[in-house]
């Protein structure tokens, strides 16, 4: 018995094992209160009004390509639900530290970064007006981009400089922060 079979040539597809493995690894994000010199995690998380919170965000990238960490938004609330009310935005608009725009605050990202996988910022301790509770929840949305990708309006870390009245990025060109002023920043692209 004879038969004729024809088909397009088969193109084998494969990737080296380490690429497959690194693609399946999980990224480990952390957000920690640090001591005043950023050397260790703060053992006591109580603050007095007038003190500064030193907050450090990290990602453990394992075998991935080098990554740069960003913070899309951070919100303070009185309950663990980030959508509860009252709520106060510390970081918003895909990386604008909007709390630094308020009067009598010194909130800012720390520049330069200690590592691409780390982003540090300071926020002045505060309470919600009219509320006597001593506990505030801070919830942040962290993300990464490839370290070789230039920061842009979607992936940025911008602080408001009161002396110059301008938004300035931790890295990248100043124009990536212009949407912090207008409020027309891309969200979660």
From TrEMBL:
GO-annotated cellular components: egg coat; plasma membrane
Pfam families per record: Zona_pellucida (PF00100)
Xref: InterPro entries: ZP-C, ZP-C_dom, ZP_chr, ZP_dom
Subcellular locations according to the entry: Zona pellucida; Cell membrane
ZP domain location: 1-165
PTM statement from Swiss-Prot or TrEMBL: Proteolytically cleaved before the transmembrane segment to yield the secreted ectodomain incorporated in the zona pellucida.
GO biological process: binding of sperm to zona pellucida; egg coat formation; positive regulation of acrosome reaction
Keyword Membrane in annotation: yes
Keywords from the UniProt entry: Cell membrane, Cleavage on pair of basic residues, Disulfide bond, Extracellular matrix, Glycoprotein, Membrane, Secreted, Signal
Molecular functions (GO terms): acrosin binding; structural constituent of egg coat
Topology term for the membrane: Single-pass type I membrane protein
Domain notes: The ZP domain is involved in the polymerization of the ZP proteins to form the zona pellucida.
Family affiliation: Belongs to the ZP domain family. ZPC subfamily.
Function description: Component of the zona pellucida, an extracellular matrix surrounding oocytes which mediates sperm binding, induction of the acrosome reaction and prevents post-fertilization polyspermy. The zona pellucida is composed of 3 to 4 glycoproteins, ZP1, ZP2, ZP3, and ZP4. ZP3 is essential for sperm binding and zona matrix formation.
Protein name: Zona pellucida sperm-binding protein 3
Source organism (scientific name): Ceyx cyanopectus
Gene: Zp3_1
